Amino acid sequence: MTSLLPDFSATRRVLSNRNFALYTAGNFVSLVGTWIQRLAQGWLVWQLTESGTWLGAVAVAEFLPTLIVTPITGALADRFDRRILAVIGQFLACFQAVALCTITALGLATPELIFGLATIGGIVYPLVQTARLTLIPSLLDKEDYTSAIAITAVSFNVTRIAGPAIAGVVISALGIAPAFGLNAVSYLAVIFALLALRIPKMEKKEKESASILADLIEGWRYMARHKALGPLLLLWGIACMFALPLQHLLPGIIDTYYGGGPEMLATFTATMGIAAVFTGVYMAQRSGPRGLTRMTLIATVFCGLATAGFAATHTEVIAYIMIGVLGLFGVALGTTSQTLVQTAVDESYRGRALSVWYTVIGGGQALGALILGALAELYGFGPPLIVAGLFTALAAVAMLPKRSRYANLLEQT
To answer: pTM of this prediction?
Structure first.
């Protein structure tokens, strides 16, 4: 008789791995700090400008450099020690948080200066993220990728709850500068965890391309020509450009629609995180990639519908429901897409393939935030987000008939 209770054997197996447990704990502390800074930065920009365009511009400054830098970091990750690259990136990110704390505490913060520091963060973060992503196969067997990525997603979304909650209290009680300071301190945990990992050094490739540029071009060509990952990468890009930027525009939407402050912003962000945790826990039970192609298409449909539904209402209760739905299916989209890439790509292309994936995920959100933020200046937040959300849903529906063909290419372990 089949048990109706959830089976967490895959989750227990992954978490019993010393390296992965240490890696996850260090990331958790660092991500709490990242969410504290993200909320503080958005609220500071809105206080200084009350402009949707500036909110979008700072999001672009933070994420758009991924379009240029991430392919380079992917090529570096296929050539050099990925752990050392991650540690270097964490130190640089720590310095950026210290700079934000300092200018805010001294009353020197301007939108232009925040934009500049966000750009520095956007240049540094791809190095951190690409190295993190490519480390997972060094810690676990392939059959555990789905569970490991889902556990990482749960960790990320628990911090999405904890980080904004802490940020709301800190900003209200102490101001914005201490929030940036907390993020700077949080980087020490992940640096320690990375240095404590017991993993073999990456074997050097016998024959390297003539240049980093040749390597990254080869990585983009590999992904674009893949018969399943190529089309799905386009769909993921649409979702990231037109549905997921909603979270970056929340400070303006909350103030404009509901007259709320940082506490309400923290509550909306935490609601999205709580919903995402449920999906992450479900995904963490899975072993292997079977069914993920269908799931990634369905998740994209609901991400689009949730964005359109959120933008179409001015009723707070419905808005919370829609942001929760976006949290549920947003983490499903992120987990399924990364797992399919991790499972399907050749090891020699792993760093570059994941850098392409992250470029689309991060760069798409940045570009979408800028476009939708600028359109909000002209038409308000509602109409652009409604159209963008519906377009995302329709694009995924159009691809559903091809799901079996893609699954045959991607879901082999």
So the answer is: 0.72
